[in-house]
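User: tokens in, sequence out, please.
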């Protein structure tokens, strides 16, 4: 298929709308690491238009396509330097798609398509963070659980300004991802602009192999009640089977009295995976999501559910919950009435369709997700029914100061220090970033407690010990205020 015909197909897709279907329509989750297919639906194989149809379409498009041909022909004949006609047609395609001003719609050439397909594998090497483009910025949706990105302190809604000092302004998501990903053991430095921080700062991350383990169970005991917690990290190819096995274990072997479904930091994934999870909790006649677009009535999706459980359930969400996670949380609340605890989700509620084109790929947004009550997810997110923030030190990154922190300093790194010390149980008078006499006293007390040199100055050994203990504190369930509240509400 010629590049000229590819341009024609793209023009058809956007000017006459809905005229082309793909062999396997891939609903894609949020852009980034990893890119995962949300659903593969069986469809009839595409038959490319014959010459007669080609001619009819050209006639229908008229001057629009003719102008593109004329411009490329003139450039080929008269431009001062030799031009690559195929590259000109590639540029024409990219121009058509970019004019949509939609970060999720893009044309990928053959090389980028190959890289994109590699991101659909069950593991990859990188930092382990899902990214998107929001308001013109490459933005973190969520770091994956236990990934280098999470361990380094990357947070949802962080904006990536540069990768290894190379600005990613005006980069597509896939272009930025190619810079961020890399071989295991290598370092990458991200320049981060974070809401609430005074200045951008750098975070160095060592890349690693990121396996896509999707379901992690554990059990909590409270007031004589046994509560199962199923943390769903993403919705991948193995999620449905993992979830069914772990739920059966909690129900049949542990004998739980209640269940918390934790999709905090879950960036989404396979659409059929979230559907399979929902079958465990809903009746078959219920609508759990709608798809919507400008030229159609919202179309309901139902499932063959196993019925409502006889024990109470709550759902945990935060600002890193996106896409399929938002579908799950909204459905379980609006259909089953389960409480949703935490913070408003990310707000990724669009569906992308991919179509192969001459070795490349066209990806376009084709639907919006609507919740069972008809609420739009895109740009809005899902609000908790029970709002609960974490302790402030949960939201802090590791200290990034290149010099020791000491008396009379006043900056965001000192504020991080103060929040961490407060989180470790020390009584500190202020957390506004000014290193006063009381902060000196608290640092000295910490150093004495930990067998460090008592100086009142936060040197490297002191900083490392504080960060080690605060990371341990974050992992303790009793410090997880959102989890504790989610357990409380199911028995209220």
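Assistant: Sequence out:
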């Amino acid at each position: 298929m010629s590049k000229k015909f590819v341009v024609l197909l793209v023009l058809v897709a956007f000017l006459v709308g809905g005229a082309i279907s793909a062999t396997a329509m891939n609903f894609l989750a949020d852009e980034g690491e990893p890119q995962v297919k949300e659903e593969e639906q069986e469809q009839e194989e595409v038959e490319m238009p014959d010459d007669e149809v080609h001619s009819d379409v050209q006639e229908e498009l008229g001057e629009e396509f003719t102008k593109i041909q004329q411009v490329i022909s003139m450039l080929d004949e008269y431009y001062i330097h030799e031009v690559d006609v195929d590259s000109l047609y590639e540029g024409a395609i990219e121009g058509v798609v970019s004019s949509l001003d939609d970060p999720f719609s893009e044309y990928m050439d053959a090389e980028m398509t190959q890289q994109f397909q590699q991101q659909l594998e069950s593991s990859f090497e990188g930092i382990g963070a899902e990214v998107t483009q929001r308001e013109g910025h490459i933005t973190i949706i969520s770091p994956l659980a236990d990934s280098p990105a999470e361990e380094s302190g990357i947070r949802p809604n962080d904006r990536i300004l540069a990768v290894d000092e190379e600005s990613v302004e005006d980069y597509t998501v896939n272009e930025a991802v190619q810079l961020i990903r890399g071989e295991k053991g290598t370092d990458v430095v991200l320049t981060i602009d974070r809401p609430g921080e005074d200045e951008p700062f750098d975070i160095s991350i060592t890349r690693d192999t990121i396996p896509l383990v999707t379901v992690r169970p554990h059990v909590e005991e409270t007031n004589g009640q046994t509560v199962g917690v199923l943390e769903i990290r993403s919705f991948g190819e193995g999620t449905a089977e993992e979830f069914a096995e772990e739920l059966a274990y909690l129900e049949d072997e542990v004998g739980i009295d209640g269940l918390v479904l934790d999709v905090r930091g879950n960036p989404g994934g396979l659409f059929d995976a979230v559907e399979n999870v929902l079958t465990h909790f809903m009746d078959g006649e219920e609508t759990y999501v709608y798809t919507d677009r400008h030229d159609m009535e919202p179309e309901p999706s139902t499932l063959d559910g196993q019925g409502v459980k006889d024990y109470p359930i709550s759902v945990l969400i935060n600002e890193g919950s996106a896409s399929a996670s938002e579908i799950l949380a909204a459905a379980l609340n609006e259909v089953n009435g389960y409480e949703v605890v935490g913070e408003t989700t990310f707000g990724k509620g669009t569906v992308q369709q991919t179509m192969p084109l001459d070795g490349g790929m066209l990806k376009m947004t084709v639907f919006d997700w609507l919740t069972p009550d008809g609420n739009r997810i895109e740009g809005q997110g899902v609000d908790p029914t029970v709002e609960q923030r974490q302790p402030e030190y949960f939201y802090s990154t590791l200290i990034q100061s290149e010099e020791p922190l000491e008396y009379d300093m006043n900056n965001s790194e000192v504020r991080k220090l103060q929040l961490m010390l407060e989180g470790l149980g020390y009584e500190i008078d202020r957390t506004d970033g000014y290193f006063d006499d009381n902060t000196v006293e608290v640092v000295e007390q910490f150093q004495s407690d930990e067998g460090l040199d008592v100086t009142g100055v936060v040197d490297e050994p002191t900083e490392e010990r504080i960060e080690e203990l605060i990371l341990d504190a974050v992992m303790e369930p009793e410090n997880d205020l959102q989890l504790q509240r989610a357990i409380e509400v199911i028995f209220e």
